[in-house]
Amino acid sequence: MSQELKWYGWGLVNKNFDLSRRHNFWPFLREKLQLTSNETSLPVNLSDIKLSSSDSTLSAKFEALLGANAVRRDDLIRITHAMGKSYLDLIRIRKGLIQNPPDFVLYPKTEAQVLEVLQLASDLKIAVIPFGGGTSVVGGVEALKDSGHIAAISLDLSQLNQVVSIDEISLLATIEAGMLGPALENALQARGYTLGHYPQSFEFSSLGGWIAARSAGQQSNKYGRVEDMVSSLTIASPIEIITTLDAPASAAGPSIKQL
User: Fold this and answer.
1) Which of 78, 133, 247, 251 is the most buried (most CB within 10 A)?
2) Model confidence over 108-117: pLDDT tens digits?
């Protein structure tokens, strides 16, 4: 995304919701929450947040795969990839309580690079957390690792952001997982089509995130939920790339798409 996102909240830096004309908002909030003070709680200073150390010898192994510009270890990037946008996440991050920052963040540009990252991470016992738009409200992007992992990294898919093709006969489009909602709709509407999927997180969430979360939107009663729109998937695992059957339906066993 070309514009900078807030590290401590929702949306873009220097873009806020104007409450000056909402005269009843603060009285309503004070009454319902029984607030007795007008004190404002600001986020901690970014420089005051202390993160766990990041191992440069590990990140160097991934730099050899992707290039130095595709591996980030700076604090701001680690913080913005540390958690999603639930109320609990926002309270924690505004207080500087970041227990599980990723050790570093990777930005692959191709399907082949994603596979290489997963293979190397598997060999090194590193947990990999996919990251689309970072709008998860269920802890889906937090870099958790167990005793079997030596590190946890965030795999940012924002560079995989293209409509690869549109089949105007079958009305199927091949789209990369990191494409955000507005860019996706703009690309489809330029050809006279729409996906018709508008979750509340639409502006900042990605197609891959929608599919992973089985997302629904405000027009799902017309166009269906996102799983109803998926014809086929290309799935990267540490072993290989798996592509599901590109057909409307199959009677052969359980569906990998639904798993």
Assistant:
1) 133
2) 999 999 999 9
